[in-house]
Write a structure and sequence with these properties.
Shape: extended
Radius of gyration: 38 Å
Number of helices: 4
Strand order of the largest sheet: 1-2
Number of strands: 2
């Protein structure tokens, strides 16, 4: 009997190992290529739920105190942000505005800037909107908005042709070739 050569044993070019780290039940995957060298693994994007959970956990961490230490019961990051937005949203229009050092901000005339200024008022309104949408959710849409959302797909616009003063259609006539005036010569073409 002749051996056709189809029964050869092929060694795999890649091997996959699952490694359990001491103290945890988490398995990690390692891929080895030819010669036993580690190969770069394809990375995938993390799942949306994992990212959301991570960000929420980061926001729920305590803020370090002035001495740089975190204590149980201290303000969380999200509470500090909420308090900051609340402070901006509840700013009185008559109250002077202070810089980060506690000094009142003055304009070019030397007058103290108050919250009546447009930028500060807009920041206050935006902060209020953000607080309300976070605390109470988005306000429900009106009937007009709901109807607009239903018909928002495709719009057909018909444009009527304008009324022309001269409705007669003229044919284009071929223009004669222009010859430069500064040359005193004839143009001859070979055929």
């Amino acid at each position: 009997m002749e051996d056709s050569g189809d029964n050869e044993v092929k060694t795999p070019t890649e091997t996959v190992e699952l490694v359990r780290h001491m103290g945890t039940d988490k398995l990690t995957k390692r891929v080895r290529g030819e010669g036993g060298k580690f190969k770069k693994q394809k990375t995938t994007m993390p799942k949306t739920l994992d990212v959301t959970r991570l960000l929420r956990n980061l926001l729920l961490q305590s803020v370090a105190g002035p001495d740089g230490k975190m204590r149980k019961g201290d303000k969380t990051r999200i509470r500090a942000m909420f308090d900051n937005i609340f402070e901006i949203a509840s700013m009185s229009p008559e109250q002077p505005v202070f810089d980060k050092f506690g000094n009142p901000i003055v304009d070019e005339n030397g007058k103290a800037v108050t919250a009546k200024d447009a930028k500060i008022a807009m920041a206050s309104v935006q902060a209020f909107k953000e607080l309300m949408s976070r605390a109470y959710g988005m306000p429900s849409k009106s009937d007009e908005e709901m109807d607009a959302l239903k018909t928002q797909g495709v719009k057909i616009v018909v444009i009527a042709p304008p009324n022309m003063m001269d409705k007669e259609v003229y044919e284009e006539k071929p223009k004669e070739k222009l010859v430069p005036a500064f040359i005193d010569a004839e143009i001859v073409t070979k055929s």
